[in-house]
Amino acid sequence: MARDATNRADLRPAGIRRAEFIALVASLMALNALAIDVVLPAYPEIASAFSLDSDADAGQVLVTYILGFGLGQLLFGPITDRFGRRGPLMAGVAIYIAAALLSPLMPSFALLLGLRFLQGIGAAATRVIAVAIVRDTMKGRAMASLMSLVMMVFMVVPILAPMAGEGILRLTSWQGIFYAMAVLCAVVAVWFSLRLPETLPAERRRPLTMRSTIEAVRLIARTRVALFYGLATGFIYSALFAFLTLAQPLFVGVYGYEDSFTFAFAGVAALMGATSLANSRLVTRLGARRLSHTALTGFLLVASALGILSLGGNPPFWVFFGAVCLVMPLFGLIGANMNAIAMEPVGEVAGSASAILGFLQSVLAGLLGAGVAALFGGEVWVFAAGLAAASLLSLLTVGLAERGRLFRAPASAA
After folding, report:
1. Which end of the chain has fewer CB atoms at under 10 Å, N or C?
2. Rounded to two decimals, what is the model's pTM?
3. Which of 306, 271, 275 is nearest to 387 (CA)?
């Protein structure tokens, strides 16, 4: 490039515009988010096709996918730091596509679960490498701004994906959902191969050895900001996981809004997307720390207020829904900013760091979110308490990362 790139915040490859770059990275992240939730409406058909005892047993297709996704991140992190971004990503999407195409042909539920596990491993490449590409090409507030737009897609897709799955089911069967995933992944893979060059030059690649992997883990463990912000992000995402799991039981089971559930869900998704879009503009002026710390505090206050109002019995729907519309959009000011802060000091091992932090966040969010869902018995206060606990743990962990100095950027980032 004609100008010295070392002091620039935006190091995108020449020839690709910012809007296309954002759309491409967001599409990679969306492939994983889509595979998680687009299958949800097909549980009854899958249970019937394989003679399962109940529709809930079909939920194992989600559990096995997430297990493969978590473990796959640890696999692709070191690989992408050694061989670059393009090759490992193409391998990952090939696994994803093959598993999606073969899943409808399986004669037994066990074989279907095995392919979902493999699909999760393939999807791990999209998450790890998307974040690594952003870290390769962005610094500081520019990285946080771009990540906010990418994470907008990552947060909204899981909410809208069930509606897409329902639409596919109306046209075809549960097998059609897997074929649709394969087609979409192939389109994104071709787009990526044609438009985005390698972002990790050969001189920055690391050897693929156990020692180099251990060194990456040690670097994150020694880097206070990376470790604690990674943990804090996992804590707060457990609240999002709990919401996705409990939204239908709350809206339909508790309040009886079956007919309008889809529209209410979409409304919350739109608000989350709007705050992510706003964050992409605000972060360059206010900074990732000030925005995320303020949003975390607001999240804790709103969730606590809903919990208090629910102690005497479930509150009126307008109180519950109003609180949800206030608290859930705050993810748009939290997730992308805290991920960017965590990745900033470990750019030298961006692939491995993305994998390790992604695995850590997935495990924390999945276990804690599932714990909240397991405790839920129709009481709104359980849901609210879970959100409050998640935000409190996240805020306390951020405090440890910043040594108690919240709402301000470090002197070196000014």
Report:
1. C
2. 0.74
3. 306
